[in-house]
Amino acid sequence: MGVPERLTYLFYRYYENTCTPSEKEELFQLLLHPGHDALLRDLIDKTWAKDIPSHLQDPATADRILQYIIQQQPAVHLPPRRKPIFFRYAAAILILLSVTGLTYYFYTSHTPAPVSALTDITRPVIDQCLTLSDGSKVLLHKNAHIDFDPAFSGKTREVTLVGEAYFDIRHDTRPFIVHTGRITTTVLGTAFNINAHEKGFTVTVLKGKVKVDNGSGDFSILKRNEQLMVDPVNHKLKKIQVNAKEEIAWKKPYLLFNDVSMKEAVEELQQQFHTSITLANPAAESCHVTASFTQGESLEQIIRVLSKINNMEYRLIPGGGFELNGEGCK
Q1: Is residue 291 part of a domain?
Q2: Helices and strands in the chain, H and E counts
Q3: N or C, which end of the chain has less CB nearby within 10 Å?
Q4: Which domain holds residue 277?
């Protein structure tokens, strides 16, 4: 499925209120790409008259509405090259997609909402999970944010990070590069955590390998359970052995399975929930799973999703634990 078809599909999925959280994040990333403006205008033309009351939208109101909606969405930063007219189109499409709530709020109220009612809203400081266009997953810690080309149209996949984030990178022939000031972290496919703050820089590797360059000609290669700290003054590198999972305890409530085997997923679930999970069919161990659980789902809810993904069934074992049965992906 090409990008135009994917954007159209996600547009109507959101419009019908049937898209998943990851699809919602992907849609808002695509909305920011300047090359999609013509398609967005066409989608707006086809749906605007049908569902939105006739109303001439002035630019100031459109900008206020867009800013309000963006505050409710995942942390995405608009590229500086976007023109003011984009805000009017984006506001229109986002109002359309939010027709069940915001349309009523903005267009049926007899008294227009004052600007302060929209701009003074405090955004919750929460962790947020993003699924990038290449299938990689990024878990942003609290008020962290990243800037990047949503389409990854170049020969490399590059993002700029401010704050702390956990990355689970989908393998690709194009290197994945994280910029944090003068420091660059390069990977091909791995899971790692970066904490970039005023007092220094720390990268912790959970699996795979990464290369960290301090911008002064020095670099270090890290592997699983290794951590690198960069001094903020002289930029010297210091590598140590750590228990990676303990070092990034903030991620513990979240589970990100990015094209991992069922065996790996089950092992992680057993460690996190301290219970027994059995795959009755050994062949199912090699089935692959891609799923994110960031809403405090119970173990049974997670088991139910993993079972459906691989055409399996599950049952509770007397005395505790779960057993998954079926042919799986075979």
Answers
A1: yes
A2: 10, 16
A3: N
A4: 253-325
